[in-house]
Specification:
globular; 14 helices; two-stranded antiparallel sheet; single chain; 14 strands; 419 residues; alpha/beta
């Protein structure tokens, strides 16, 4: 690996419960606007026993507004609509023209999804149950599989470079961006569109998470997702997509691109402990954080912001707090600004890390730490500075996004402000 090949962020796109483009997302993020809303599971038999009443839902989204044709919309799942829309936004903001300012062969797509086209899976399963296997759509498989969002992006844009799908639960988006960073660093591509997408707000997903006792059963959207708060009782399921344009730094400079930030570190470890619970000692997660910061060349005296995984479940928040202390040492940990944007968006599952990477880049460009809204009663186990209630203007040299997924997947990516 050529460790001297620097990697720039030259474009960003987002579809989320708090904004369907980067300007709207930024405004909501720093204003501490809650995108969690009331959720009606419906009154058919599939919704029986569903007690969840809130979700981080994307509203006002029409895939046609982002250049998807009627045929593309009809033949792809909502999670793919989100992924393509976020990627097209990111590409437009970068000023790149694939095939002109960068060759097709040197342009890649690393778009992950934790679950894939679950809405399509549910619809076609019902179709088969009611009408038999002969009526299952011939598009069922290519609409449902987790790699198809990345494939659809590559097809639409003509990107013929490396194309990779990561599937690592809630760490998916972070792993996709981290692996794209490595690919450009070692010279496999000059540009990679990287991120994650998810759309799984339906009775079967909610039923599974609810029965695993992972979801918040609060009815008030403003009191539902409470990361690091003593009153937290579970996460809020959300949906959306985030996409970043990663570009060889010299390539970006040569074409006069606007560089939002530099991605400069990536850590990837596994707890090897439990299918849903994090390792209670926090050590594997701490190594992912430390590795990302070491690669980034983080030094004493620099100012750090961490966008925490911060789901609002009891075990996640306390174990993540411990992992941060182990990674940084207690002195630096207590001086570091940390927040959970999931308090505003809910948990976007495979898209979470990608949308939160956008939040980290915005924190650097605006020199502002987003807040953890709703944090009013601090848990003694979670005693760090979680930027409660309101955003904070501050110097930020390095921003780190932390993701922890079912199965023990830990991922962290580090960004530097442009110097």
């Amino acid at each position: 690996m050529n460790k001297n090949r620097r990697v720039a962020i030259t474009g960003m796109g987002v579809i989320s419960p708090i904004g369907n483009n980067v300007p709207d997302f930024k405004e909501s993020l720093f204003a501490g606007r809650c995108g969690i809303s009331r959720f009606d599971p419906g009154d058919d038999k599939d919704a029986e026993g569903i007690a969840v009443r809130v979700a981080g839902q994307v509203t006002g989204f029409d895939p046609a507004d982002y250049g998807l044709t009627p045929q593309e919309i009809r033949k792809s799942d909502r999670y793919s609509h989100f992924a393509v829309a976020a990627s097209l936004q990111a590409l437009q903001s970068s000023g790149l023209v694939i095939g002109e300012s960068v060759s097709r062969e040197r342009t890649g797509v690393y778009m992950g999804s934790g679950i894939g086209g679950l809405d399509t899976f549910v619809r076609q399963t019902k179709n088969m149950a009611e009408n038999g296997g002969g009526r299952v759509s011939p598009m069922f498989i290519p609409m449902m599989i987790a790699n198809i969002a990345g494939a659809n992006i590559a097809i639409k844009l003509g990107a013929q470079g490396p194309c990779l799908t990561t599937v690592s639960a809630c760490a998916t988006g972070t792993n996709a961006i981290g692996e794209a960073f490595y690919a450009i660093q070692r010279g496999d591509a000059d540009v990679i569109i990287a991120g994650g997408s998810e759309s799984a707000i339906n009775p079967i997903a909610i039923g599974g998470f609810q029965n695993a006792r992972a979801l918040s059963l609060a009815e008030d959207p403003l009191q539902a997702c409470l990361p690091f708060d003593a009153r937290r009782r579970g996460f809020v399921i959300g949906e959306g997509a985030g996409a970043l344009i990663l570009e060889d730094y010299e390539h970006a400079e040569a074409r006069g691109a606007h560089i939002y930030a530099e991605i400069c570190g990536y850590g990837n470890t596994c707890d090897a402990y439990h299918v849903t619970a994090p390792s209670p000692d926090g050590k594997p997660a701490s190594r992912a954080i430390r590795r990302a910061l070491d690669q980034a060349g983080f030094r004493d005296g620099e100012s750090l912001y961490i966008n925490a995984h911060g789901t609002g479940t009891h075990l996640n928040d306390s174990c993540e707090t411990l992992a941060i202390k182990l990674a940084l040492g207690e002195d630096l940990a207590y001086r570091t600004a940390i927040s959970s944007s999931k308090s505003m968006t809910g948990h976007l599952l495979g898209a979470a890390g990608a949308v939160e990477a956008v939040a980290c880049v915005l924190a650097l460009t605006e020199q502002t730490a987003p807040p953890t809204i709703g944090l009013e009663e601090k848990d003694p186990e979670c005693d760090l500075d979680y930027v409660p209630l309101r955003s904070r203007k501050m110097c930020i040299d390095v921003a780190l996004s932390n993701s922890l997924g079912f199965g023990g997947h830990n991922a962290a990516i580090a960004f530097r402000k442009v110097r």
